[in-house]
Each structure stands twice: as C-alpha cells, then as structure tokens.
Write a structure and sequence with these properties.
By secondary structure, the protein is α/β, with parallel strands linked by helices. Helix content is 48%, strand content 15%. The N and C termini lie far apart (57 Å). About 3% of the residues have low confidence.
Amino acid sequence: MNRVLLIDDEEKLRKLLSKIISLEGFDVIEAGDIKSGLKKLEVNDVDVVLCDVKLPDGNGVETAKLIKERYPILEIILLTAYGNIPDGVKAIKNGAFEYITKGDDNNRIIPLLYKACEKVALARRVQQLEKQLGDRLSFDKIIGKSNAIQAAIGMAQKVAVTNTTVLLTGETGTGKEVFAQAIHQASSRRDRNFVAINCAAFTKDLLENELFGHKSGAFTGATKDQRGLFEEAHLGTIFLDEMGEMALELQAKILRVLETGEFLKVGDSKPTKVDVRIIAATNRNLETEIASDHFRSDLFYRLSVFTIELPPLRERIQDIVPLAQYYADIFAVKSNLKPLQMSPAFVQALEHNVWRGNIRELKNVIERSVILSEGGVLDVQSLPFGERDYREGKGDLSNFSMANIERQHIQRVLKHTNGNKAEAARLLEIGIATLYRKIEEYKIQ
C-alpha cells in the first residue's frame, strides 16, 4: 500500500482530505506543521508528501527542497490557496512533482497521487537494480560460468590482494573496467577512491591536465590550482583505459609515477608524491606498438608485471544468455516495462552471432530489442541480425580477420547512428580521435 504524508495546519480540511485519500486505498499519515511532518518522515516509509504551501513554521516551497535533498526518491505535491506563477516555477525547481491550487484543482489530487506513486515505484526499482550493479563490482557478481571467464577471474582474485600493477588486455568491450573495479574492491585499498579515465578520449595536453592537474598561471585560464586524477586516487586505484593510445611524452610521466611515486603538475617545479595502484588496459598489442615506436618498452615491462587477458564473448557462448537477461531486466525497468522473456529464436540468434563488439555490443543490442519488444517477449524480429545472417556465413568467425571484425563492427555502428561519429564513439566507448583514426586506418567511407 502506498503511503502519503499530508501536511496541513487546517485540521478540518486535513481530516476531510485524509479520508478521501484513504478511501482510494492509500495509507495516510497526518501532520499539522513542517516540524512534525519531518519527524514523521524520519520514522515512516513515505511515497508521496502532500503539503500546504503556507504553514505556521515555514513555507512548503522551501520545504520541498529540503525533503528532496533528504529523500530524493520521494515525490512532493504542493497545495496552495493562492497560486502564482513565480511560486509554481520555484516549487518545480525545488523538486516538487506538482503545484496545484486548493478548490480549483481538487479533482486532480487523486490522479496526481497515482502518477507520483508510479514514479516512486519506478525510481525504487531502478535504485535496486543500480545497487545490484554496484554489487557486481565484486568478483562473485561478475556474470559468467564459462571456463574462459572463470580462469580470468581466478587470476584477478590472486593479484587483487597485492599492490602489483596489473595490465588487462583483450578486445574492445570485454569488460576490462568491470575487472579493474573488482580488483580494487578486493584489495586493501577498497575504502579509498577508484578513479577511471579513458586515455583515448582526450588530446595529449588535456589528458596531461586531467591526470596530473596544474598550478595557477600554468596557462591562459588557469586561475587556480587544480588537482589531477592521480591525486584524487591517492591511497586508492587509478584505472588507465586505452593505455595504448597515450602519447609517448605522457608515457614517460606514467613511468615516473611507477618508479618514484611522484609527478610534476603542469606548470609546477616541485614534484607531488602519491601512493597509487595503477591498473592499465588496452585492446592493442603493445609489443607491436613498441616495434612501431608508439609505446615505450620500459613502461610496458613495468605495466605488464601481471597481465590478464579477458576472453571475447564468442569464447563464452554459455554466458551470452545470462548476460542478455541481465541487461534485458535493466532496460525493462528503465523503460517502465514488466520483466521480458526471450523467445527460443531470439536465444538462438544471440548464441550464433559473432559479437564483434563483445559485451558492449550485446548490451546495445539488448537495449534496442527491449525498445522494440511487443507482448512482453524479446523476439528475433527486434534484432539487427538474425538467422539469415549466420546462414549466409556472417556469423562464421573463419570469414573474418580481427581487423575485418573491428572494421565491420564500426561500419555497423556508424550505420546505426546515421553517420553521427560522436554518437558512434559513445556507443563504441572509445574516444572520437580513436574513431577517426580507425575510420582512416580501415578506409571506412
């Protein structure tokens, strides 16, 4: 039963309104002023607050802001005897669900309560799923029972309890950041910050500033000192994703942190000392990059003290359906849908697809399928591929080199975004500069 807190100093009106709301099936708690209302919120699980604007000990519009700060999921409907536009605008800015006039809008109260309760119920479902997602930071919450993923988990668990630098390798979309977070959570640094950055998402100068910060006056617009991510991660863990995309000059600064535990901020002459565990990740072959003079060999040897290669999704076929169901549940809640079932044809198509973009591609495909779903079922018609694809050999891995797999996946995503490269980079979870480089490398039109 949904619970409503009714705050109004006019007792007769409050009792009448309470009775009307109760007859609609709501559990109603009453308060005559703000102070007593806030006390009742502390000891009761309330869905909606129905509050008068003018009360003996304060203003409902201001109180709405206070309540939303303390109870962000709860919804507030404000009642006023004399409505005015400025108050209405401020009420909504302060987080009120609605601002209505007594008498004129009485017939709107019950429908509004139902709508507010629906919004609260959805927010609580999302909160629960987000909590489950947070729980997945630990190793035992990583989805997958295949031998390939369990072997990777086993290695990560062993290194997690040390302070050893870790290098995570594998194709794009295999879940390297999830592993980095799990390693952090299983380490003695778990109560400190975990800071992540995609090195491919910034130019050299911007990345240097993000990582190491700057001193006031270091460049035009630098009006005050700024901490970098290494300082934010002090005593914790920093995750450097797409490490293979980092400029050689910055690689030298990372090497210095690994060797001495210190670095120079932009514009500073005095080193800053930090105690940070570094977990790096790349989808590139760093030994090949070293041979091409794109990566420092000394940094590679320091980063690769303990290397874990994450398996592509095509080597984890038995994990595809559990992962798909997990994402289907997430997107169903966000779309305000009931739990969805997967048809046998849908499951078969998922298991036969090559998954060039790995888990990331699976997540995007499931989101699309949930949007297109009908009748509470995920069916093959909602997929951007199907039986025809793998009958024609498109699902046969032997037809593709790794370069072709990546090129065709990028082409598919660009087609999905109608050529919008910024959106394609977001879906691929790579930097826009990386996308342009790959488009040029693969001669994608």
